[in-house]
Design brief:
Helix content: 10-25%
CATH class: Mainly Beta
CATH topology: Immunoglobulin-like
Number of domains: 1
Number of strands: 11
Structural class: mainly beta
Number of helices: 2
């Protein structure tokens, strides 16, 4: 009796898998795009970017390195000043069009190894369109940054339309205003990556 009960569920499972095969999507990586100089001494002097297409999402990856001069400057900017408050290094990943509806950065979908990170996604411009077009990470502890260390920021984006978009990677200096919002006071474009490629 036990054998008959076991045969029916197993045969049903096998038949179900044969009729409704699982679709799989192998992750696909873009070519890496790099930069090897910066126009501002407090920004990383080198870095590289890549995208990982997982089907329902796309991951943006950036790795970058500061030299000793940049670290000294960031530590100096991290000290309070009457005029500027405290200034922090920020890595910003965004789509090139604020009204883009092809992807949306996932809240909670950011990883970094920058010290004491503040991470957020934003739907720009004010009021937005319901799609997060920016993922950014602020390093709130510049004293813990080290020269010649490989730092990473990764952000995951929902894919709503595979029609195509372009991701841009920027370094920024940000200050915190009275409402504790970080605002960009200086930025530098590094590279862009098209999706899909």
């Amino acid at each position: 009796m036990l054998r008959k009960k076991l045969v029916l569920p197993i045969s049903t499972l096998v038949l179900g898998l044969a009729l409704f095969p699982q679709q799989t999507f192998a992750a696909d990586w873009s070519k890496s795009k790099s930069w090897s100089e910066s126009n501002y001494s407090a920004f990383p002097y080198e870095g590289n970017t890549s995208l990982k297409d997982t089907g329902d999402t796309v991951e943006t990856h950036v790795r970058f390195t500061f030299d000793k001069k940049a670290i000294r400057e960031l530590k100096s900017l991290g000290q309070y000043s009457q005029d500027d408050g405290v200034t922090y290094y920020t890595m910003d990943i965004s789509v090139n069009d604020d009204n883009d509806e092809t992807v949306s950065a996932l809240d909670g979908g950011i990883y970094t190894d920058l010290p004491d990170p503040y991470m957020e996604v934003e739907d720009d411009p004010m009021g937005g369109n319901g799609y997060n077009d920016e993922a950014e990470v602020v390093c709130q502890d510049p004293d813990s940054l080290e020269a010649e260390t490989d730092y990473r920021v990764e952000a995951t984006w929902d894919v709503h339309d595979r029609g195509g978009t372009t991701f841009q990677f920027h370094s920024q200096l940000s200050t915190k205003d009275y409402s504790f919002e970080y605002n960009t006071i200086r930025y530098e474009f590094h590279v862009k990556q098209k999706f899909p490629w």
